[in-house]
Amino acid sequence: xxxFEVPELKETLDIPKYVDGVMAHSAPYTAKAEFQxxxxxxxxxxxxxxxxxxxxxxxxxxxxxxFQVYLDICVKCGACTDKCHYYIGTADPKNMPVARQDLxxxxxxxxxxxxxxxxxxxxxxxxxxxxxxxxWYSYYHQCSQCRRCSVYCPxxxxxxxxxxxxxxIMDSISIGQKYCNEILGKVFVIGxxxxxxxxxxxxxxxxxxxxxEEDTGVxxxxxxxxxxAEILLVPPSADFFAEPHVDGLIGYAKVFHxxxxxxxxxxxxxxxxxxxxxxxxxxxxxxxxxxxxxAAIDLGVKRIIFxxxxxxxxxxxAFLNTLAGPFDFLDPRYPVPQHICEYTYDLIQKNRLKFNxxxxxxxxxxxHDSCNVARATRMGDKPGGQFDIPRAIIxxxxxxxxxxxxxxxxxxxxCCAGGGGILTxxxxxxxxxxxxxxxxxxxxxxxEDGVTHMAAICAxxxxxxxxxxxxxxxxxDQIVSVHQLVSNALVLTGATGENDSSExxxxxxxxx
Amino acid sequence: MSALSVSYAILFYFxxxxxxxxxxxxxxxxxxxxxxxxxxxxxxxxxxxGVILRMASEIVLFSSLFKSNKWIWxxxxxxxxSLLLIVLRHFRYFVDNTSIIWFWVPLVQPFxxxxxxxxxxxxxxxxxxxxxxxxxxxxxxPSDYLMLLLLISIASSGAMMKFVSxxxxxxxxxxxxxxxxxxxxPLPGDPLLLIHLGLVATLMIIFPISKLLHAPGIFFxxxxxxxxxxxxxxxxxxxAAELEAEKAK
Lengths: 512, 249
Hints:
The complex is a heterodimer.
Chain A: H1 33-38, H2 49-63, H3 65-73, H4 85-90, H5 97-112, H6 114-118, H7 120-123, H8 130-139, H9 148-152, H10 159-172, H11 178-189, H12 198-216, E1 231-234, H13 245-259, E2 263-264, H14 282-299, E3 303-306, H15 310-324, E4 338-339, H16 340-349, E5 365-368, H17 371-376, H18 385-397, H19 428-434, H20 436-449, E6 453-456, H21 459-468, E7 479-481, H22 482-489
Parallel strand pairs in A: 1-2, 1-3, 3-4, 5-6, 6-7
Chain B: H1 3-32, H2 48-61, H3 63-68, H4 70-89, H5 104-132, H6 134-139, H7 142-163, H8 169-181, H9 191-206, H10 214-217, H11 222-225, H12 238-248
């Protein structure tokens, strides 16, 4: 099945002894010059690439406090060394968070610190050579920017910040990753990561309407580009067709239907994801984020709601107001933006949704906390709402729910190993190996509690898991969307029109 | 004044200048560098008070490290608390015992004495981990070992002056008071004392050019010190605002 060794699931998760260089061969395809140039990066390696790279490093050090501080303050205590899923899955020591940071830090020290300039051997400082650059490319694409290490660092050093900076530095000398940068090209030309044009979207949504009506006898709408709608829903584009993502999209539509909400999607901003974050570029990320602002203005909506996608929710929750705000043209009673889970949860709290939980009785569920949602965002008013709200939704829709072990969920959650721009076939080995800790946890609850399915709220998690869990002896249909569970159990009260009168008071928490 | 006293006087002025000047430079650099995005590690406090509590628990209790690794936590915390007690104890060399701020100095003395042992135990534990745990050994540079050895040597030489071979601490106090008031007094030529003071001066000099910057740096760590309120309050760095203004043109 694979041309590499798939890690074995044992009784417990072991922290391996390190094996030098075992993943040094892993590197994604590089982006062609035309894609680099389209994003404003050079297409060819400049002759003085070292100098350009170092200048970029200085530029980033003066623009990002996180980068400067984190380069300086690591004490090499070792607290993070056993926390990265890629280290646990590969045993390559450069996949220990501190060692990954050090790939950049040792160059920073060499050129920008007294000790590194005059006593390089003493502090482990090295020149920026081609070999170092190759290591950067390899190992900064073995980081999913999941921030698990930052939870455990006594100073909160976030390897994601370092790996984003490293990718931006590499882009500044033409070395970009094919997967991320070509996808960003599609967003800017077509409007979504998958390159689905307006026509294709409209067809897909029409097909979904027919399918749902056939299934339920109720005409649930999937509106696209509907001016004057109240809510703009921005789903990750995988929701339009991938499994199990699309079942989640059907779930959102049913929830909106039940709430009697007036909503629409946009073909111009048909992508919740924002790979600009993965490559660390504020400018690229902002350009993608501004599409959502423009769509909201053009359609005249009053609220923006994001679909199930982890990094998208980070960009939406934590960055959107910064990148594309202020959103003073939207209804001030609601937070901007909202997560679909917040929306559904509020309706549940208000008893506006009726569930027939037995529809999900053939499953025993567990929930995978997506890394970006868990450690970089919030849902609701209270810290930790990002853990409670999705679980509350699942429990409202299902009778059988069990959590995975406590040290693998919540803020301690293990990344699916496909985040941060790693979700590409040319990185399959690192994707499979990095999934080990999550697979181990899933196995534990499968064996001990009879868990049959794992729900997720992230397009990348869903795509990654459906692809890698067969390597560990599970089947791909064991991964479900949270709103798929909602879709299964939600009792649709009637045909369209019945709820029109409630259009103006559809349930939701007002902003506090 | 002996040449020895003069050279130690110069050494301490130099070390003090590097420590203060270097820290000032780095703190100013951290202070001035913007944080363009909200990157608090969540769940994070949603109020300023909450952030202060979070930072306090990191700084006083090393709460993240506690979550992470109990061995590093116990040794690291033991070392840092001991260091604090020892530094407080050493105020007796810098505070005039007739001044009104003297009152607390005698109170901390007994704690400072025994802290020497816990400091050495903590540091030795950290050094042992650095040597014995393969992952920690992998990430260690020579400077990481030397830093621990330096601190162990400072603690041991200090403890030896207390428990083995006393030095003339009244003269030591006179020497340091003299440095502060430019009324120079001789330093006793005790080898243990000279080693101890030489190592302390070394520590002061390398402080602002080494990983010891974690001490001021943690206060500037955005993942820990940001309020989790990006939806409620628009966060905009000056350079991002400029970028926006340029685009609007």
